[in-house]
Amino acid sequence: MYKLALCEVSILSRLWDMTRKKQVIAGFDRGAKTYSRAASLQDQVADNLSRYFSRLSATKILEIGCGTGLLTQRLTKAFPRADFLLTDISPAMIAECRAHMTNLTESNFLCVDAEKPSELPSTFDLIVSSMTMHWFDEFEIGLNNIKQKLKKNGKLLFAILTNNSFHEWQKICNILNYPIATPHFPDINKLKNQFPDFIWHVEEIKKTYPNAYTFLKSLKSLGAVATRPGYKKLSNNEMLKLLDHADHEIEITYEVVYGEYSAV
C-alpha cells in the first residue's frame, strides 16, 4: 500500500513545483473523474446550502466552482426557469459538469478564474458557490470583487472551509515536526469583522478515516492537493514515517462556514 502512496507522492511533487494557481487547476483537472465518488463532504455541504434556495427568487444565476455538478443539480431543480452561467477554473471539471447536466447547453458553461470577475460577462440576481472560494489566492479581495457582480437586491450565497479545519492533521504533523501542506483558509473571526454586512453560519463536520493513507488518498481523489505558499514537500522516507505514525483511525474536522449577502 505504501509503495503506491510513494508513487502518488512522486506525481504530487510535480504539482508542488508549480505556482499555487496552477496547482489548483492541475489538481482538480486530475481529480475530475474521481471527484464525485470521494465528495461525501462536498455533497453534504451542497445539500445544506441548497436549503436557502426555497426563500429566494432569481432569473439570472452564476455558480462559481461548479465542479462535477453537486450543487448545480440542486440549483437547476430549484430554479427551473432561470438563466444559468456555470463556471469553474478547471477545464476537466467543466467537462464533467456538462456531461452530467444534459439539459443545459454549452453557452451555460464558462471556464474562468472567478478571482477575476471582470472576465464574467454580466451581473446576476443570484451568485452561489460551494466549497470553492477558499482556494482563492486572496479571499477577501475576491469576495469584494464578486459582490460587484450582483444586481440591485441580488443575493450571494456560498460555503467555504475556514481556519479551524484539519486541526487534528496539524497535530499529527506537529508531533513529527513536519510542515502541514493544507492551505491557509480564511479566519472566520476576521471575516465577521471585515464583512459585518454578511450573515455567517458556522458548522463543524467531522469525518473519520481508517488511517492517514486513506485521508490523503481522499484529498487526491478530490483533486484538493494545492499547498500553502512556501510548503516544503516531504521526502519519501518522511512520508513513510508519517504513514506509519498515523496508521490508525483518525478523525478530521472540517469547519464549514456559510455566508449570505444581500446587495442594496
Task: Write a concise synopsis of the structure shown.
By secondary structure, the chain is α/β, with parallel strands linked by helices. 41% of the residues lie in helices and 22% in strands.
Explain how this protein is built.
- The chain is of the alpha/beta class and 264 residues long.
- 41% of the residues lie in helices and 22% in strands.
- It has helices spanning 2-16, 20-31, 35-38, 40-50, 70-78, 91-100, 139-147, 167-175, 188-194, 212-222, 236-245; strands spanning 60-64, 83-88, 109-111, 124-130, 150-161, 199-209, 250-262.
- Strands 3-2-1-4-5-7-6 form a 7-stranded mixed sheet, sandwiched between helices.
- Helix 6 (91-100) links the parallel strand 2 (83-88) and strand 3.
- The radius of gyration is 19 Å and the shape is globular.
- Residues 9-16 have low confidence and may be disordered.
